[in-house]
Design a protein that fits this description.
The chain contains 16 helices and two strands. With about 500 residues, the protein is an all-alpha fold. It folds into three domains: about 190 residues, Up-down Bundle (Growth Hormone, Chain: A); about 55 residues; about 220 residues, MFS general substrate transporter like domains (Growth Hormone, Chain: A, Up-down Bundle).
């Protein structure tokens, strides 16, 4: 049953209710952000404990990304339809329950299934946290609230690998997931007590469950085909064909539905289409890089989980510190140069990772590569988001951001599936330092090549946005797995929000 909304006083930033809203949205979004960065650090320990193959470790990452990327847009629409607080709380409880299943998983099969359920919770939770701020705070305070929300979220993303490494080396990898349960036990009651319910301008009409299901199914089938392609069985070919067919069906459904999840008309903007292609290139490289690097540091360089997690902090820290300045620079000089130079710097960072092998020195071998990589990410991520928003009408900016965010996550999951295959990693590669190191050295140039392709595409297609284009509300960003998500604004969403 849809929420019946009526006007309510807008919440001010300094009020007690405003502080409670910020606390619960930061806690909720941090659960997803931390989880997206800590699992990679835990993979070697998960593999040893559950006797998992490399394919099972790939699925541990990708089962989560398939449902998150495939259902992210639907999660925002559900919040508009049924109430943003209701869907946010549902997402928190769902995510925590799935995390509990992950923490007690007796086998890789159960863990992978629980990770897929976690992704569904993340898809409900991720757009909901920002939508609550958008709907609840007074327009004069909204930018400050969003800035604080994104800043604390970036801190959570930065702390994630360090915290994950400490948990893995201490009480064990299962606590990487179990940690979400107490966070949810704090988050959900605060939301129910202190956050006003709100609904957007889509309270009537159907929502595109079929489109979401086809999109997620296509991603799942293609990912399965890539991960299992080493065996060369006929089932792989059948699955690949079925995945492509589901993708074609998704496009057909979106073109012919009256209320599509991903309206094809938004791609009428050539620049929007081009920037999303650049997004696919750069976040495919990022997804493959962080998946393989967390393993390389532990399997080959001999780092503990804590040291490996700490080693990855510079990229996130640089983004957290300088993303706002990068966005301001891009506003002055235009996005073309940052979107060309940024991927090239990231490509150089991947090539510098070729120095990381057995007995690698952090200061001499690892840190320079991560600093160059982080500088590239700082250079490109904020201009990427700004260009996406400026490429469409203001009313479609939130939708455009959701599409771009989902595209980045889909690119990452395809890279995690495809890059080990292309680099020739066998099912047991992560158990052998020599075998993994050899494949890693083949994979990094491949990722660098994809980044160079993204830079060439950006240089050829990106132009300065129109002066009245919408600017990002999330100026501070620390997540390395996807660009910042902007709030959706339905046609009936008032400035001060709506409440039950």
């Amino acid at each position: 049953m849809a929420v019946v909304a009526r006007p309510a006083p807008a919440v001010r930033f300094g009020s007690p209710q405003g502080k409670w809203i910020l606390l619960t949205t930061v806690l909720g979004s941090s659960m997803v952000l931390v989880d997206s960065t800590v699992v990679n650090v835990a993979l070697p320990h998960i593999g040893r404990d559950l006797d998992a193959s490399l394919a099972a470790l790939q699925w541990t990452v990708n089962a989560y990304l398939v449902t998150l990327a495939g259902l992210l847009l639907l999660g925002g629409v559900l919040g508009d339809h049924f109430g943003r607080r209701r869907i946010f709380v549902l997402g928190v409880v769902w995510f925590a329950t799935a995390s509990l299943l992950c923490g007690f998983a007796p086998s890789t099969g159960v863990l992978i299934a629980a990770r897929a359920l976690q992704g569904i919770g993340g898809a409900l939770l991720t757009p909901g946290s920002l939508a609550l701020i958008q709907a609840s705070f007074h327009p004069d305070d909204r930018a400050r609230a969003v800035g604080l929300w994104s800043g604390f979220g970036g801190i959570g993303a930065a702390v994630g690998p360090f915290l994950g490494g400490w948990l893995v080396d201490g009480p064990g990898w299962r606590w990487v997931f179990l940690l979400n349960v107490p966070l949810a036990l704090v988050c959900a009651p605060i939301a129910l007590r202190h956050v006003p319910e709100s609904a957007g301008g889509r309270a009537r009409g159907r929502f595109d469950v079929l489109g979401a299901a086809l999109g997620a199914l296509s991603l799942a089938l293609v990912t399965y085909a890539l991960i299992e392609a080493r065996g060369g069985s006929p089932a792989v070919v059948v699955t690949a064909v079925a995945g492509v067919a589901a993708g074609v069906a998704f496009v057909y459904v979106e073109k012919h539905r009256s209320n599509p999840m991903m309206p094809p008309a938004v791609f009428a903007s050539r620049q929007f289409t081009a920037v999303n292609l650049v997004t696919l290139c750069v976040y495919a490289a990022f997804g493959g890089f962080f998946f393989l690097t967390a393993l390389q540091l532990q399997v080959v360089a001999g780092y503990s989980a804590l040291k490996a997690g700490t080693a990855l902090l510079p990229t996130t820290a640089l983004m957290l510190l300088f993303s706002a300045r990068s966005g301001a620079l891009a506003e002055r000089i235009g996005p073309r140069i940052p979107l060309t130079v940024g991927p090239l710097l990231c490509a150089a960072g991947l090539l510098l990772m070729l120095r990381v092998g057995k007995g690698a020195s952090y200061a001499v071998d690892v840190l320079p590569a991560l600093l160059v990589m982080g500088a590239g990410m700082v250079t490109l991520v904020a201009p990427l988001t700004a260009t996406v928003l400026a490429s469409v009408d203001t009313a479609q900016a939130g939708l455009a951001s959701g599409i771009n965010n989902a595209a980045a996550r889909a690119a990452g999951l395809v890279a995690v599936a495809a890059l080990p295959l292309l680099a020739g990693m066998g099912p047991e590669a992560y158990r052998s330092a020599d075998a993994f190191d050899a494949a890693f050295r083949r994979a990094m140039p491949m990722g660098a090549g994809v980044l160079v392709a993204g830079a060439v595409l950006a240089f050829a297609t990106v132009r300065r946005p129109v002066p009245d284009g919408r600017r990002p509300e999330c100026r501070t960003h620390g997540c390395v797995t996807a660009p910042p998500l902007e709030p959706r604004r339905g046609p009936g969403t008032p400035d001060a929000g709506q409440a039950e």
